[in-house]
Design a protein that fits this description.
With 168 residues, this protein is α/β, with parallel strands linked by helices. It is built from six helices and eight strands, in the order βαβββαβαββααβα. α4 (114-134) crosses α5.
Length: 168
């Protein structure tokens, strides 16, 4: 095995990939798109980052079959909360000893196709209505509202601080 620790990711519109690359630079670890990991890394310890769909970390289970996941990260458009991370743990059946994180990423509906684009048009209207009704919004909630209106990103290397601290 060339490198016993790697970063593996699945990204639909590029925001999870941005986090994977930022994390890779911060930890001096190679990052690979799921399905494009060189065979020499089979069974390696991996930090997995995946985009969220229907409350699941896309690609997590496939990655867990090939690599020893030491940390799981879900990236979505909602503001971060500890409840989201624990919900992902339960949905994906991530072992109790494996840290789980949720990061607010970004959203660009123009990068989606077919049924996914139609589903997200409806979801964006629902999310915007809920946030607009709320009144005063946090910075993360404002970012989510921006994402419902057009392409926007909350990707920031500072959001990776807890994960970086775990590995340094």
């Amino acid at each position: 095995m060339i490198n016993s620790r790697i970063i593996v990711y699945s990204s639909n519109t590029g925001f999870t990939e941005q986090y994977a690359k930022l994390l890779g630079r911060a930890l001096d670890m190679p990052s690979y798109k799921l399905g494009n990991v060189p065979a020499c890394h089979k069974g390696a310890e991996a930090i997995y980052l995946g985009w969220l769909f229907a409350g699941k970390i896309v690609g997590y289970r496939k990655c867990a079959k090939k690599y020893n996941i030491s940390c799981a990260v879900g990236v979505g458009m909602s503001p971060p909360s500890p409840e989201l991370a624990e919900g992902l743990r339960a949905t994906e059946k991530i072992p109790a000893g494996t840290p789980v994180f949720y990061l607010q990423g970004g959203f660009d509906i123009t990068k989606l196709k077919g049924p996914m684009k139609l589903i997200m048009k409806v979801k964006c209207k629902e999310i915007a209505a809920r946030l607009n009704a709320k009144g005063e919004l946090t910075q993360a909630e404002r970012a989510t509202l921006e994402m419902t209106q057009g392409a926007a990103s909350a990707v920031d290397g500072a959001n990776l601080a807890e994960i970086i601290a775990l590995y340094k």
